[in-house]
Amino acid sequence: MSTIMQRGIHYLQRLNTANVPAALIEKGQNRVIDASLTLIRERAKLKGELVRALGGVVASTSLLGVPLGHNSSFLQGPAFAPPRIREAIWCGSTNSSTEEGKELNDPRVLTDVGDVPVQEIRDCGVEDDRLMNVISESVKLVMEEDPLRPLVLGGDHSISFPVVRAVSEKLGGPVDILHLDAHPDIYDAFEGNKYSHASSFARIMEGGYARRLLQVGLRSITNEGREQGKRFGVEQYEMRTFSRDRHILENLKLGDGVKGVYVSVDVDCLDPAFAPGVSHIEPGGLSFRDVLNILHNLQADVVAADVVEFNPQRDTVDGMTAMVAAKLVRELTAKISK
Ligand SMILES: [Mn+2]
Question: Which annotated residues bind Mn(2+) (predicted)?
């Protein structure tokens, strides 16, 4: 693997600020952040106005891309995923109907507010504490525009922390989370990074943003992962017992007594035979139909969701995993919109 892929987006420059007043740099960074949030706010407002003018829906999915890959411990390709997923959603090889008959062409079902300009903001020297706040703010801007509900396109899994934080803060209480993944992503910190993609669910549980956390598809879990799971009361369903647990997982009812349900899908929950375009190839996973059965049968008011960890740099030349990620997005859209 090339060092560029390991070290990340190679065109980002470190700002050399040795002889420049910090206040000057910070002012400029704040202007860039304001401009970024303004574009998302205005796009969300326009899409919200459109959906409300058409009328007749209580929940409408809106895509928000978060092209962030630098909190990956291995490869950074997920930063390039959102445009590839969008391209595959509208690919001419399929139609605009979801399996259960929702029409994605209908803006009452699906709109798009674009990407958080993560790389542009990082290029201005903004560090992760502030970047994570920008992601949370962006999610809240979508949620401002009732009936829009955010479906976030990652990005590596570190983005689930600022997204869930925003959803919980905006709704005024914890949510239940259904988390499909080969990994529990619950290390206290990974390689010293508290924002690591392997630590997002530790941050979520510490913050009190989730009442129940169900992790499904696990098959790469260490002792620390199991201990952290116990510490936070996580319901961990491992692949080695999937045939026994299948009936429970295909008949889930979540969210009673909380503000709603959040669904986080790491594409590597799938067996690599179905989704080779991920950073962490982990055999022994779910089939695509297993995942759809779990999602289709889930009884829940899904308030927001994410699809993360698709790595286009690892995909087949014909973009098979892009289609897989896109279908996850399409079917989650059908779940959210009503
Ligand atoms: Mn994973």
Answer: 157, 181, 183, 185, 266, 268
Tokens of 185: 């992503």
Sole residue written with tokens 């560029």: 4
Residue 5 pLDDT greater than 90, yes or no: no
pTM above 0.90, yes or no: yes
CA distance 321 to 273: 10
Does the annotation flag 106 for ligand binding?
A: no
Domain count, the chain: 1
Residue 62 has pLDDT above 80, yes or no: yes
CA distance 52 to 31: 31
**116 within some domain:** yes
Measure 278 CA to ligand 1 centroid, in angstroms. Answer: 9
- Nearest of 323, 221, 308 to residue 263 by alpha carbon: 308
Spatial separation of the C-alpha atoms in residues 301 and 59, rounded to whole Å? 10
- Flag whether 9 is in a domain: no
Question: Ligand 1 mean position to 92 CA, how many Å?
Answer: 29
Cα 99 to middle of ligand 1, angstroms: 26
The reply to whether 329 falls in a domain is: yes
Domain that holds residue 142: 20-336
| Alpha carbon 272 to its chain's center | 19
